[in-house]
Amino acid sequence: MGLDCGGKMGQFILVIINTVFLLMGLGLFIPGIVLQTNIDFVSDEIKPVLDQVSVTGIALGDVVKNLGIGFIIVGVFVFLVAVLGLMGACCKSKCLLTIYAIIVLLILLSQIVVVILWFTMQNQLDSVVRDELSTSLKNNFREDSLNGTNQLSNGWNYIFLTLKCCGVNAVTAGNAGDFANTPNWTKGSKKIPTSCCVGVTASNYTAPPTCTDNVAAGTYYTSGCYDALINKFDTSKYSSVFLGVGVTIIIIEILAFVSSILMCRGNYGEGNLA
């Protein structure tokens, strides 16, 4: 005899769900490509500075540089899992469906763990990254130059130019901000470096004293580099969309797992794969 009612229902749901997953897997290529485009600011000059900060033991420069690639890899993985589910459903293969169910269950559990860690550690992670960037600036900023003898100092100046920011934390008018705590920089009368000034470029690296010495309003970048870096990956305006998509994916994964179990428990007629 063929599949029983529960098995047929499971097969139908699996085909629909995995068709959706196929499209989602392909769809993840788009944000991956967009992210790779957004992180083009991580040049060879800037990456050494970001590598001074570690996120769960991984250099921040590597995390930022490879974030888009990560999305693409996840997209390929989702695509392959969907193909496995479709093959198992269409061929009525208990072996493939069992493997598929195990993979979906592991993905579901890992997503729950990641969500819990994200909400419990987000503020701590933000604080750690900000503090490590501040420490790097304090210890390594030595020259107001783009081609000086210190690679990390050059990198900080490139960050200020590229992200249009100044210091790790925002500098207020008339104050040196984070640069008041850079003992290795012989700053003379300067309060902030030339790279913090509006209109400065790599080819025209000069700025008036009203910016570097007086920090007059309108002459320097008011954003801190930590916030500027975060804004490169700002998804807050899409948070409700991401939340809805995330909940939908979890529900779909639960349905996929249950459906695969229903098919595995269904009755198969002669000639069907077991």
Describe this protein's structure.
The protein is built from nine helices and two strands; from the N terminus they run H-H-H-E-E-H-H-H-H-H-H. A two-stranded antiparallel sheet has the order 1-2.
User: Share of helix among residues?
Assistant: 55-70%
**Overall shape:** elongated
User: Largest beta sheet, briefly?
Assistant: 2 strands, antiparallel
* Helix and strand pattern: HHHEEHHHHHH
Output the number of helix runs.
9
Uncertain residue ranges: 267-273
The average pLDDT is: 79
Total number of beta strands: 2
Terminal CA distance: 13 Å
Rg, Å, rounded: 26 Å
- Beta content comes to under 5%
- Class from helix and strand fractions: mainly alpha
Strand order of the largest sheet: 1-2
Q: What is this entry, summarized?
A:
Helix content is 61%, strand content 1%. It is mainly α.
